[in-house]
Design a protein that fits this description.
The chain is of the alpha/beta class and 403 residues long. The protein has 15 helices and ten strands. Strand 1, helix 1 and strand 2 form a beta-alpha-beta unit.
Length: 403
């Protein structure tokens, strides 16, 4: 694939919501299969954040067979249950979540006796075990050497320094970049980088990583992520497909709202939505303005600027995932439902706004996961013409504006 047409894939975060991305990837794999284009990787540049980083790493490991990698990823997600991601047994919940809530309420009394304080609401050691079992990250080196992959980037946020760091592996020499409050570091990616990128604040524990020879503790890469598309651009992509994990624009019409004081779960869900969604919307709008500005310039003026138009296609859920999650809360193990109820998550389907946003990030259960994957496939096929044009599967190759 030529440098001029190098395509990138940006996968955003969102915990269990990232199952939506897998449905989109399945639909793309199906389109490639229909056109007999299964022998190429349509996305040589991959950039992922949070759960999107894990999905991106899985695609990088299988870059020699994108269609097969997408189907393998779908099979893994389809079989997920909560206990594959975090401990849901009574002992595990007591040692993490219940103990954490107790410390919040009685910390002034207990802190002096508790030597080992809980570090997060949930214990995600099962996720670490799952990643080690299913992802052989040595395959990334092989894919880079054999030109099946150009680069993979994983982002995380440092609690220690406040910096937003992009860790990347690339086939060609790419100088690390540095911007205000964000920097890049070339390294060999590990399972620790994936766990750090997916460590939802407060929910999962921070992960120690080395940055410029110094250890720092990292959490979810969606925190303080002001330019989600930037890593793919720095790594050479000029056509980028962005798959979000939440609505970039709410559907029209009034919403039922409660006049009661918001629960802790509602506040937490709102904060997580702000972390995972808002930066992408701002970055897409920024790219659209740059494209529009460049379209107004003549050839000579365009030659004097370093800015270049970016062919950007964005696919995001067409439905509110909070409402979808509310219909599946009953699938969670009783221990997790009890923990979430303590935070204010309602199991009443007639009140889907009562903390369902928080649950939507933690609902790693088959009913919810498969519903998200179905929605991803439907949303992609509903825009089949745009997707096929982006992938080079149609005759219409005229430049497009940002979707």
């Amino acid at each position: 694939m030529s440098q001029e047409s190098l395509a990138g894939l940006v996968l955003m975060g969102g915990g269990a919501r990232a199952a939506y991305q897998v449905g989109v990837l399945q639909a793309i794999a199906g389109l490639l299969r229909e056109r007999g284009a299964t022998r190429r990787n349509p996305f040589p540049v991959l950039a992922g954040t949070s759960a999107g980083a894990i999905n991106g790493a899985a695609l990088a490991c299988g870059a020699a067979d994108f269609v097969g990698a997408a189907e393998e990823l779908a099979a893994t997600w389809s079989g997920l249950r909560v206990e594959h991601v975090y401990r849901a047994d009574s002992l595990g919940v007591i040692r993490s979540g219940a103990r954490w809530l107790t410390l919040l309420s009685l910390g002034w009394l207990l802190a002096r006796w508790w030597r080992h304080r809980p570090r997060s609401l949930l214990d995600n050691r099962p996720l670490a075990e799952l990643l080690h079992r299913t992802l052989d990250l040595r395959r990334i080196d092989w894919a880079l050497r054999h030109h099946h992959l150009q680069a993979l980037a994983v982002t995380a946020s440092s609690y220690s320094s406040g910096q937003h760091v992009t860790f990347y592996q690339a086939r060609s020499p790419v100088e690390p970049w540095s911007r205000s409050q964000r920097l890049a570091e070339r390294t060999r990616l590990t399972h620790g980088h994936l766990l750090a990128s997916a460590a939802i604040p407060f929910v999962f524990p921070a992960v120690p990583l080395q940055v410029q020879g110094q250890q720092e503790y990292f959490g979810d890469g969606s925190m303080r992520q002001t330019a989600p598309i930037s890593p793919a651009v720095h790594l050479g992509a000029q056509r980028i497909l962005v798959i979000g994990a939440g609505r970039l624009q709410e559907p029209p019409g009034p919403r039922a709202v409660s006049g009661d004081y918001p629960s802790l779960a509602q506040i937490a869900g709102h904060a997580l939505s702000n972390i995972f969604l808002d930066a992408l919307a701002v970055d897409v709008e920024r790219a659209r303005r740059i494209n529009h500005t460049l379209s107004l310039l003549g050839p000579e003026a365009r030659g004097r600027t370093s800015l270049r138009p970016l062919d950007l296609l964005v696919i995001a859920p067409s439905q509110r995932l909070d409402d979808l999650a509310a219909r599946h809360i009953g699938e969670l193990p009783s221990t997790i439902r009890a923990l979430l109820r303590a935070l204010g998550v309602s199991g009443d389907l007639r009140a889907p706004g009562e903390g369902a946003a928080l649950a939507s990030y933690l609902l790693f259960e088959p009913g919810y996961v498969r519903s998200l994957m179905d929605l991803g496939r439907q949303d992609t096929l509903a825009r089949r013409t745009e997707v096929e044009r982006f992938l080079g599967l149609s005759d219409a190759q005229a430049p497009r504006a940002v979707a």
